Amino acid sequence: MIELLQNLLLGLSVSVTPINLLLCLVGVLLGTLVGVLPGIGPATTIALLLPLTFDIQPVGALIMLAGIYYGAQYGGSTTAILVNMPGESSGVVTAIDGHQMARQGRAGAALAIAAFGSFFAGCVATFFIAGLAPGLAEIGLRFGPAENVSLMLLGIVAVAVMGRGSLLATFAMIMIGLALGLVGTDLETSQPRFTFGIDQLRDGISFVPMAIGLFGVAEILRTLEAPEQRDVLNRKLSRLLPSRGELRASAMPIVRGTLLGSLLGILPGSGTLLASFSSYMLEKRLSRTPERFGQGAIEGVAAPESANNAASQTSFIPMLTLGIPSGAVTALMIGALTIHGIAPGPQVMTQRPELFWGVICSMWIGNLMLLVINLPLLGIWVRILRIPYNRLVPAILLFCCIGAYSVASSTLDVVMLMLFGVLGYVLSRLDCEPAPLLLAFIIGPMLEENFRRAMLISRGSPEIFVTRPISLTLLGIAAALLLTMILPVVRSRRQQVFVE
Amino acid sequence: MGATSRRDLGILLMMAALSVVLIYGGQNLQLGSTARMGAGYVPRMLAIGCAVLAVVFAGRLMAGLLWSPRKAAEAADVGPVHWRALVSISVSVVAFALLIRPAGLITASLVAVLVCSVAQTYRGWGERLILAGGLAAFSGLLFVTALGLPFDLFPTLR
Known about the structure:
The complex is a heterodimer of chains A (about 500) and B (about 160).
Chain A: H1 2-15, H2 18-36, H3 42-49, H4 58-83, H5 89-103, H6 107-141, H7 145-162, H8 167-182, E1 184-185, E2 192-193, H9 207-225, H10 244-266, H11 271-286, H12 299-314, H13 316-322, H14 328-339, H15 347-351, H16 353-385, H17 389-408, H18 411-429, H19 435-457, H20 464-467, H21 469-486, H22 488-499
Antiparallel strand pairs in A: 1-2
Helix pairs in contact in A: 1-16, 2-3, 2-4, 2-16, 3-4, 3-9, 4-5, 4-6, 4-14, 4-16, 5-6, 5-11, 5-12, 6-10, 6-12, 6-13, 6-16, 7-8, 7-19, 7-21, 8-19, 9-17, 9-18, 10-11, 10-12, 11-12, 14-19, 17-18
Chain B: H1 3-25, H2 41-67, H3 69-74, H4 83-117, H5 124-146
Helix pairs in contact in B: 1-2, 4-5
C-alpha cells in the first residue's frame, strides 16, 4: 500500500510539471476538437494527431497521446448525443438514450452526466491500474519467448472473438496484417523481404501512414457515401446541469458501470464496446422501469459512458505491463512508443518508472481537465458540429497528407497513405474491420522473433509451447475462447448482442 | 449476389492473391529448418495459412450459393461505390505527394484541396478557391511557422 502511494506520488511529480500539464491540456483539447467531428473515432483521432508528438520527449508524448485519447472519447460522446453520429462502436450505445435525451431538450444533462461518469470512472480506474500493474509486470518479467508467443496468440484470438462480425473474416484481416508486418529487413539474417526492390521499404512499412490511411482516409470515403443528417443542433441547449433526481438516478449506474468497465477493459481485445454494451444491458435488467431505456433514460447514458471510460483506461494495463496491444488504440500507442525508441514490455516499469507512473497519473489529470474544460466549452464543440461536412473533408484530408509526410519527409509515405486509405475503404465495403489488421501488423514482427527464438531453444520441437505451464495456460485460455465461438449457444447470443 | 457472398468472394480473392505474393516474393528466401528458421520460414507458413483461409471461403461461398441463395441475399446491401469521391481523393493525395518536395507546402495544399473538392457540392469555384487558399495558409502557418516542421513553403530550386 505504501509502495503504491509512493509510486503514485512519483507519477504525480512527473505529471504536474508545467510542461507535462500543458501537453496534457493540449492533448485533451485537440483530442476533443478532432473527436467531436462526426464519424471520427478515437483511433482515427490518435492516428491523425500522432505526428504532432514526435518532437516531444517520450514521457510528454505519451501523456499527450493519452490526453488525446480521452479527449477524443469524450468528443465522440458529445457527437453521439447531439447528432446521433457516433465515431466508434462504443458510442453507439451512448447514442441510444443520449440522443433521445437531446431530442427532449436534455442534451446538457446527458453531456454533464457523461462527463461526471467518465471522471469518476477515470479516478477508480487509475487506482485499479496502479494496484494491478506491478503484479502483472512481475509475471511478465518471467516470460520467455515461448510464453510471449502464447500470449500474443491469445491476444490475437481474443481480438477475433470479441470483435464485431465474422470470425473467419477477422482471421483474414489478421493474415493481411501479419503479412504486411513481414515487409522489411529480416532481423536475424538481415535479408530484405518483400521490399520489391524499393529501398525505403527495407525499414518496413511505415506505421503512421498506414494507420492514418486505414482510419482517416478510409473514414472520409465512407462518410462521403452516406447522406448526412443532423437535426438536434439548431435547438438551444437549455439547461446544462442535471437535476437532483437525474443525479440520484445515475449515481449507482455510474458505480456499477465503472466496476464492470474496469474489469472488462483488462481483457485483451475486448476494447470499450463490450464494456459499454454490457453495462447498458445490466442497467436495463436491474431497472424497475426497463421500458424507459431507449426513450431517453439517463441511466442509459451514465452507465455506458462510465464503463467506456474505465475500460479505455484499464486497456492500458496489458500494453504497459506486457507490451501487448489490446485494440486499435493501444496498438497505435505501441507504435508511437517504438518510434520514440521505447520497447513496450514488463521492463518499462522498472527501467523507466517515471514514464510508467507519470502516464498513469496523467490519465487521472486528463480526466479532471476534461471535466473542468469541456462543459464550459460545450458551445464551441456545438459550433464545430455545425461546420458542413463538405468543408471539413478537404481539411481532414490535407492534415492526413501532412501528417503522413511529416514522419520522414517521404513521398512514398504519402502514396502509402492513399493505398491504405483505399484498402480501408474496400475492407469497409466488405464489412471487415481494420483494427485487427493494424493489431496484427504491430504484433507480427514480435511474434515472429519470439517464435523463432522459442523454436531455437526447443531445437525445433513445438512441444515447448505446451510443456511450460504459463504458456500452456495462455494457450488453454485461447482455445477455450475459440471453443465458445463454435458452440451454438454462445454464437447466437453474440449475434443477438451485436444486432441490438 | 448478396452482401455476405460478395464479402466472401472479396476475402477469398484477397487471401488467394496474398498467398501467391507470399510464395513468389519469398521464393529466394532460405526456409531453414524448424530449429533454425531462415528468413523464408514464417512467410511460407503465412502463405499456407492464407491459402487455407481462401479454400475455406471458397467452400463457404459454394455452399451458400448451392443451398441457401435466399439467406445470402438477406444481409443488408451496401450502397453503390462513390467513384467520384474515391478517384478525386486518391488523385488529391497523390498530387500532394508529388508536389510537396518540388513545389512546397502551399502549392501542394492548394492543389490537393482543389482536387479533393471536386467530389463535393459547393457554391461554384469561388467557394472552392477560398477554402483552398484558407487551408493552405492555415497549414503553412500551423505546421511550418508554429510547429517548425522542416517543409518548404514555396517552390525552391535545388
